[in-house]
Write a structure and sequence with these properties.
The complex is a heterodimer of chains A (307) and B (259). By secondary structure, chain A is mainly alpha-helical. Chain A has eleven helices and two strands. Chain A has one domain (2-294): ABC transporter involved in vitamin B12 uptake, BtuC. The mean pLDDT of chain A is 91. Chain B has a single domain (29-43, 80-258), classed as P-loop containing nucleotide triphosphate hydrolases (Rossmann fold). In chain B, 34% of the residues lie in helices and 23% in strands. Classes of the chains: A mainly alpha (307), B alpha/beta (259).
Amino acid sequence: MDIIQNTLSSFVSLVPVTLAQSLILAFVVLGIMIPFRMLSFPDLTSEGAFPLGGCVCGVLMAAGMSPLAAIAIALLAGFLAGCCTAFIHLRFRIHTLLAGILMMTMLYSINLRIMGRSNISVFGAPTVFDWVPGLQPGFPASKIVVAGLIALVVFVLLYHFFRTEKGTAIRAVGANPDMAEAQGINVWMATIGGVGLAGAFSAAGGALMVQSQGFADVNMGLGILINGLAALMIGEAIVGKQSVLRQLAAPFVGAVVYYQLVSLCLAAGMPPPDLKLATGLFVLAMLALPSLKRSRGPAPARETVRE
Amino acid sequence: MLEIRSARKVFYKGQADEKVALDGLSLRLATGEFGVVIGSNGAGKSSMLNAISGALVLDSGQIVINGDDVTATPVHKRAMRLARVFQDPMRGTAASMTVAENMLLADLRSNKRTLRRGLNATRLASYKERLSLLGLGLENRLDTRVELLSGGQRQSLSLIMAVGGKPELLLLDEHTAALDPRTADIVMRATIRAVEALKLTTLMVTHNMQHAVDFGHKVVMLDAGRVRLEIDGKDKAQTTVPDLIGHFSVKTDRMFLAS
């Protein structure tokens, strides 16, 4: 009984902090979902774009730039990183996964170059989280409000975008690239733009994370991809992916639920080093589920991705 | 008007398995003309359609549509002028998107895509009306994902998508070959209706000799990457299935079955 009580009380006390963190990391999950689901382009750039956003933001804040401008430039850097991955795939016919691995490996050096050292402290510098009136800066509540508001705006904008004429065309590229091309859609532009947008979101997540935690670290992206993927799987299991609305809601719902689960596991005494193994096994199980079901029931539509 | 001027394409050039797909092929199709292309497997029918649509880059020769040389134009830009229905119903539609969204994509083929709402009430109403012409009940399934439709329904949808917006050139690539006889008949009749109503310049590839006899203004027979025979006008009206089969140097089982 004591164990359960201790676990629960430490879990509950962590809920606000975890919620703030998960709303920030929801942007990374969004940056994983857009290429993966909307473009059928399994993209690994986020593992490098997330710290890229963080490093750019950290350096600029340390140089005294306003927090919003720092985020904007981090966003731009992430966009370029995503564009590069898509371009490598399209121009040289390199497998999407390999293009992502190349990009995130190269980004590690670039991130180190940008910062000039492996980490940078921006503690005490003004952040976007200070701008909430009536709340004490630095507390989880202000982070939840700011990150939640940005998430809401991004969600509404994306929901409208993917139902416009241009947005529908981008989704068509993911659904059937040959058909999209035959319908007059420029597959190159749609892919580069879409993967770029995803990189921008991953970088924005990194930038917000740096402002939230008060330092930038070149290793802050380590394992972010698998965490994001796990969050996406949970989100899709909860809200589904049958419509644009559900598919877009999945990253946000998934991020919030996933990080609470992680916090629960840690509160229950799970050693932190085991976390990656547990997450990896979970993602594996989620990905393997359709093929396990298939051996019994009728064959479902195969998940096709670009190579 | 479509003009193919001495198109040439060689696959695996300089290697042991070099294959001449198009060997100086020339073809002219007047505006509003309906040409039917026949020929044995490997005669170059698909290569010709791919060359017209831009999926295949020619070694030499030109493709001219309505007076404009489009030889160097990429696929997505040529799509503004031409529409294509593939043999495989899966290729011509986006499976994970709804019927209405597929119609929208086809609708925007020759237009600039904007940041306005894609599926508005006006569009939905017009899609409903256009789909109801098929008589398959697709007009009531606008929100159904295309992967849930049968092959025949998907192909009918592809056809409606292709003829919408009155393309300058319609390419039909054995578009009824993968369907059962009854559905093939429905799709073929819908094709003829649309082509006649809109007076579309059409190029149809088929292995069905009856279709080649019954439909179109002109029959073109390909062999080894060049035009072997062209029958039009009065001669076309008098041609019979055995006549056409007689022209095949290599008679495959498939043609016997089709006759």
